[in-house]
Specification:
3-methyladenine DNA Glycosylase II, Chain A, domain 3; Rossmann fold; 3 domains; three-stranded mixed β-sheet; alpha/beta; TIM Barrel; eight-stranded parallel β-sheet
Length: about 450
């Protein structure tokens, strides 16, 4: 049974050192009880207390790490049903399916797509996470050769798929050090798969014919010493799979039902016959509530909207993404280049900087810290106003890089131009366009 905040507080060192991220041990205890903090954040907790607090500090859905190196990803660790309550913790992983029944050309094509499709948005690199390698031939040697080929060709995390322990063992011979997810333990093979997982320190997927069977299976795996589990309810129709995701999440979070307190894996690749419908199903599971999604193939027009959706859903809705403030040089500017200013809301920055780059006009972009707010929101909140903008410009160091004294402000902050001219003595304040898409034409006209 979970401990209360006061019970947890009694087991903490009571130093109020603040190293956990909050000022007092009592506040930390309350966060632990609410599932909003991890016990590892306290550097002074005793081992005895650590054991007693393990249950209180563990999230209702166990976090599971898959893979090694830079492409390691974590699923699970969730504490809320709805994003606005707090935030979702570990983004849904996306995997591409490759089988040993495919031709060498098709296998190479899919591996190349996995390696190639990487997108940059708001300063982050977005890509698929894993390759799901499935044995369809039933031949351990053929599966081993495929796993070895893929492991050498990509750094992605691996999911080994077979219900035959000897085939999974063959794949593990060449990739055990990559800590792949073993898919799947069933009621028929649980003991053998658990043995493989223990010997190789790998996570296991538990697949049942129903949610009830999955719960029974995770209990069996737990008793066999396996705690890193990903679950598959076995549903392959959209309606049933969606319903299962909600029941699993609700059972773990609201009813504290431990046998279902694990992240999930879903297979849109087995629920649709065309990429667009598959993408639609996958988008639903990104939101509710898959830990891993396996796609039949990676197409740019499918993958990009999915990774952007994932980015949006798994960001903190109460904390906007922000870009570092400072001077950004675009298109190799010189002392005569125009100077623009904007806020440090990441989306605003990347839209504005992208439009400046496309204009081919060498420019300086001043990015001002507005606590991650967009131009209009920051202006309304009093964080992107004349006196603060003037102070930022003076301290930025831009005066040492240019000979002119002209500053272009966003059209939405035009009312601040008079105050800026007073605050920046000797500067000419120019009002730029309201929309980012109009920036290239504005800069080119300015240059001409």
């Amino acid at each position: 049974m979970a401990l209360t905040g006061i019970q947890i507080f009694k087991l903490l060192p009571k130093t109020n050192c603040g190293k956990c991220g909050v000022p007092t041990c009592l506040a930390f205890a309350m966060n632990l009880a609410a599932g909003k903090a991890e016990l590892s954040a306290c550097p002074f907790v005793t081992e005895e207390a650590r054991v007693q607090l393990a249950e209180a500090s563990a999230p209702p859905i166990r976090p599971v790490t898959i893979g090694t190196g830079v492409t390691t990803f974590k699923v699970g660790g969730e504490t809320v049903m709805f994003r606005h309550e707090k935030k979702f913790e570990n983004p849904t992983a996306i995997a591409i399916l490759i089988t040993d029944a495919m031709s060498d050309a098709e296998i190479t094509d899919r591996v190349n797509k996995f390696n190639k499709y990487t997108y940059e948005r708001v300063g982050l690199k977005l890509r698929a996470n894993a390759i799901a390698i499935k044995s369809e031939s039933g031949d351990p040697a053929k599966f081993e050769m495929l796993v070895e080929k893929i492991a050498k060709a990509t750094d992605g995390a691996l999911i080994l798929i077979s219900n035959q322990p000897d085939i999974l063992a063959a794949g593990l011979k060449v990739c055990a050090d990559r800590k792949p997810l073993l898919y799947a333990a069933t009621m028929a093979n649980a003991e053998a798969i658990a043995k493989l997982a223990r010997e190789n320190s790998c996570p296991v997927a538990a697949k049942g014919a129903s949610i009830e069977e999955v719960a029974e299976l995770t209990s069996i795996l737990n008793k066999a010493g396996i705690s890193d589990i990903v679950i598959d309810s076995g549903a392959r129709t959209v309606r049933q799979a969606f319903q299962d995701q909600i029941i699993i999440r609700g059972s773990a979070l609201q009813k504290k039902f431990k046998p279902l307190g694990f992240p999930t894996i879903t297979f849109p690749c087995e629920m649709a016959g065309n990429p667009m419908k598959e993408a639609l199903i996958a988008s639903m599971f990104v939101a509710k509530y898959a830990g891993i999604i396996v796609l039949s193939d990676l197409q740019g027009e499918v993958l990009f909207p999915l990774v952007v959706e994932r980015l949006n859903i798994f960001t903190d809705p109460q904390r906007p993404l922000a870009t570092t403030s400072g001077i950004y040089e675009i298109n190799n500017p010189n002392e005569k280049s125009p100077v623009l200013i904007t806020t440090n809301f990441s989306l605003t920055y990347f839209i504005v900087s992208g439009e400046i780059e496309s204009s081919k006009v060498p420019s300086y972009l001043l990015v001002m810290d507005t606590e991650g707010l967009s131009v209009m929101t920051a202006w309304a909140a009093g964080k992107f106003v004349a006196d603060l903008m003037a102070t930022f410009v003076k301290k930025s160091g831009i005066e040492g890089k240019i000979k002119h004294r002209k500053l272009i402000i966003p059209g939405y902050s035009a009312t601040e131009s008079g105050g800026l001219e007073e605050g920046l003595n000797g500067w000419e304040i120019m009002v730029g366009p309201r929309e980012g898409s109009h920036i290239p034409a504005y800069l080119r006209n300015l240059r001409d």
